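Handoff note, outgoing to incoming analyst
You'll be picking up this chain. Sequence as last confirmed:
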Amino acid sequence: MLPSYFLLSLLAAFSSAFATPSLMGMKRLTSGNSIAVDNENQFLISPSGTFSSGFYRVGNNSYCFSIWFTNSFDKTVVWMANRDKPVNGEKSRLTLNFDSNLVLTDADDTVIWSTDTTSDGEIELRLLETGNLVVMNQSQHFIWQSFDFPTDTLLPTQRFLKTSTLISMRSRGTYLSGFYYFKFNDDNILNLIFNGPSLSSIYWPYTLVLAFVNGRNPYNSSRIAILDETGSFESSDGFQFNATDDGVGPKRRLTMDYDGVLRLYSLDESTGNWKITWLPGGRIDACMVHGLCGDYGICEYNPFPTCTCPPGFSRNDPSDWTKGCKPPFNFTCDSNYNSSSSKEFDFIPLPNTDYFGYDWGYAPGVPIEICKNICLTNCECAGFGYAMDGSAQCYPKTALRNGYRKPDTAVQMFMKVPESLGRSWLELKSSSELNCSDSELFLNTHVYGERGDRFRYMGLLIGLVVTVGASELIFIGFGWWFIFRKRVNEELVNMGYIVLAMGFKRFSYYEMKRATKNFKQEIGKGGFGTVYKGELEDGRIVAVKRLEGVLQGDAEFWAEVSIIGKINHKNLVKLWGFCADKHHKMLVYEYVENGSLDKHLFSNDSNEELSLGLEQRYEIAVGTAKGLSYLHEECLEWVLHCDIKPQNILLDEDLEAKVADFGMSKLFREINESGFSKVRGTRGYLAPEWMMNLKIDAKADVYSYGIVVLELISGKNASIFRWLGSEEEEECTDLVKWIMKRIEKGEVKKVVDPRLKVENEEQNKKMEILLKVAVECVREDRNSRPAMSQIVELLTSYEQSNFHGDIE
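Most recent structure output, in case you need it:
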């Protein structure tokens, strides 16, 4: 879709159109002076400009005094004074007192942080070229230095001592102290440690191997390590490594990341991006990080690390996986537990799955039945792992934490459950897919017990009861008429179980007619059906989507809808319920006040309330990106949308974006003769791979999102775009090509919607970033398109980005 010379021209246009001003900042802060949070020109800069130090925004109106790499694309923070106690965005300040105490105060003059130092004579605060923030006297003696108090990052030449600890961020974009530590332990060995609210454990290096086998030496008392300027790291315990790009030159940082993995990064100063140049070896990867998925949680790769719960389990906290999963039963151990009570339990198998640690016994070379009995006869046993590679090794466990699942894992986990539940789960399939089609066009996921199969198999026990009852009635003469009725009842009982498990309501067709006043007020129409406004009995206003072309039976439809109902994010439209009444299939959504984006963006109405300014359009781009990022990478069921367009982006009363119609590809499946899904989506928004019968993945949604951003910038509708052009230009019906040609000719200003007011530096920066994001998203080569999470990071860090200048 995009010729390479267009992209090259665009890069050149960016270089010429967006000039970068010279760096500003102070070289030092002297006694009695302050840096104010509400003065963006007050910050320190190192002698050559590599580092900057000042107030760094960590929330809507909250700041931390920080040090960051000036020229990294995302202004990467390497140190924070008050990461766990942000200050207000007004009237807060950092003051260097005359007694050398460096003090950070909030808006009400409360002391949030200080160096607690004192000294006589003249002093000053400087940021050195190494990234070290220092309070020094006239003799250049350091009274205090940030290098002695690292947060999550170690810089070259910064000594790492026995008192030093790198503590991860809480999560991506959340700078609060997290649960992963890098430090020396009491045996003088450098470790990676999960230090959660309820437990603490070392997960690297492998603790069941002696330090000497890991190449470590505990017989030292110095406990010191250092990363030098060539990318070489050496520690007193014998641990050492080198960057893959070793040598003097690249700017580097060693960071304890929020996912529990320690990484060495090198800065590519031509792009401002970071590349990983070292990772811990041995048994360390994201799924081996303890605490990542919490109690009972299972980590697996699809293709990125993701957490799931075992069959029938539910998340303790939908927003925090570290809190793990909750079982649908309670085990109680008392003196009455004996061989008789042990018969009340069974096991469900979790193939290629193991839970690291918490082994209370080990039995090599025993049959699986003996291993099972060992666990059954001990009340404290929560399950057992069994090696399926022929070695017959048995690992009974007292706790199920730090679970991971990999295809090459020889261990199969057997989880202890009540016998009644165990029988209904023994045949549970271990994977299913949520995809844009029914053949090759999908984003692979393997999620235990969280999809339609879970509910079908969970209903087996209920189905068994119904079957027995039906058989008895058949025996006394009700005949084939009752067989038909029994099947209907069985299906309804199964559906009722789904409703209880999912927590959203099943509506009857009569209830839908009454709520919508016989489907009177139509508020939208699309490829999947018509949407009506309604009001439920409890007063809630809803949007009822009456689906057309759904071929599934009621049970299958309900099982598929249950997947959509579990997805919850503030930038996604919430599903409240559904109707599956014979051929009537409906979804009941929250009602979003301001309708779809297209009604605002493409409206010719002069009403100012309908118009969208640049600030609003930027936030719509951010909200949409966050919603898609959640669908692609974060939610329990990874989802491809397959039809991103303004009609499927709704705006609430605050004009915050909410993505609608996600998961529809699960309900509508049409396969053509070649075995591929028929093209889904809307003209003007389809990625090139749809037309070439290639596998469809998340990058197809990224392309469509890029088109929407181009529409936000230009105000033009991609699906009906037509440009007559001048005499020397041919007619153009492709919005992407038209915009690229304008940029190629240096006519960037013609791309921008004339209704937008781009009047100051901040607005210029936002427009530039929107343009950059759009261009990156609509690349013809999908491998060159960014992931939605990367887009979110770029859009939300615009204030610290390296873009400046005016649109010409």
